Amino acid sequence: MNVESQEHKDLRAAVAALGQRHGRGYDREQLWAEAAKLGYLGVNLPEEYGGGGGGMAELSIVLEELGAAGCPLLMMVVSPAICGTVIARFGTEEQKRTWLPGLADGSLTMAFGITEPDAGSNSHRITTTAHRAEDGWSLTGRKVFISGVDIADATLIVGRTEDARTGSLKPCLFIVPRDADGFQRSQIDMELQAHEKQFELVLDDVTLPHDALVGEEDAGLLQLFAGLNPERIMTAAFAIGMGRYALATALAYAKDRQVWKAPIGAHQAIAHPLAASHIELELARLMMQKAAALYDAGDDAGAGEAANMAKYAAGEACVKAVDQSVHTLGGNGLTREYGLASLVTASRVARIAPVSREMILNYVSHQSLGLPKSY
Ligand SMILES: Cc1cc2nc3c(=O)[nH]c(=O)nc-3n(C[C@H](O)[C@H](O)[C@H](O)COP(=O)(O)OP(=O)(O)OC[C@H]3O[C@@H](n4cnc5c(N)ncnc54)[C@H](O)[C@@H]3O)c2cc1C
């Protein structure tokens, strides 16, 4: 029996070859354009709008393999996966025609903003609010840590609107163009070495047309979750790719480096943790494949649990693989030449974003195990 179809294996091999051609010193724009041209960026988007007609199974293979070659495209987590999915599933016909072909062919990119300074992990507490204006909407609020806003044509902002009947606030998604009046961004000084930067955003009475609202005003939560499961699956792919890249670097080194009679990889203190990391990355991939299969089959509820578990497992496996890989290289683990030290910081992203390890443990405690909540 094959866990992965021949088609998926072929996709993996083709993307891996593309990744090898670009490698660690990759030019993000060039790789983005080439991956798009080959149909990889929009592989999950509907064919009628220029996509490949596949799903998260295929898109996660693309990101994992690019990461494993040392050239991950972080914006794949948000542009085709979250934004593309939400627009394809809930957008109006006009929104689909405006955005999907461009997201698929790489000529358009969309960022995604939910995190707020005073809400953090508690996204129920977000306060970015949309008021009805004469010709559409007026959006006001703040966001933080939003990736790639400078290179994205627009950002899909999670805000709230007031329910006309109850007065309570309900989540809604708005497409905010990069250069909209009142939409300001300032780059956050991160320790990360990555092409994609993080931004703090201020939305000061940003005027948006009616059709900036994605889909139905009353289906906000459903729409939001439709995007968050792909985000978790893709973060798992990102983490597994990075873990594999670090591990491959360490393995090559451990087979070659000799300071006693045999290469250092012969010492079990070096070999066993690397073997354990390989196992943990494989296990995380299995859960990612399960999450993608459930999501692609339309089982949003089942995919929710699996996507959380996959993101957790992949984040942990990635952090451990990178840590052990750096250690395997001894002093060289900290040189720029070998390029592993910067992954120590990068690997931690997978533990924190888009939902932290603790929030996933909370989710599993409450949703899967039925334990009571402390908060
Ligand atoms: C590189 C990077 C890129 C990002 N890109 C984006 C993006 O594109 N778009 C976007 O919207 N966001 C983005 N984020 C934000 C990210 O999703 C948040 O950082 C994350 O959700 C955690 O929120 P916080 O940083 O406010 O941490 P906090 O919520 O302040 O949490 C701090 C710590 O407290 C723990 N904690 C909080 N509540 C609980 C609890 N109830 N039980 C146990 N522990 C708890 C957390 O697990 C964490 O360890 C990005 C972050 C990073 C680092």
From TrEMBL:
Instruction: Report the superkingdom from the record.
Output: Bacteria
EC top class, in one word? oxidoreductase
What's in the keyword line of the UniProt record? Oxidoreductase
EC id: 1.-.-.-
- Supply the name of the protein: Acyl-CoA dehydrogenase family protein
Tell me what organism the protein belongs to.
Streptomyces achmelvichensis
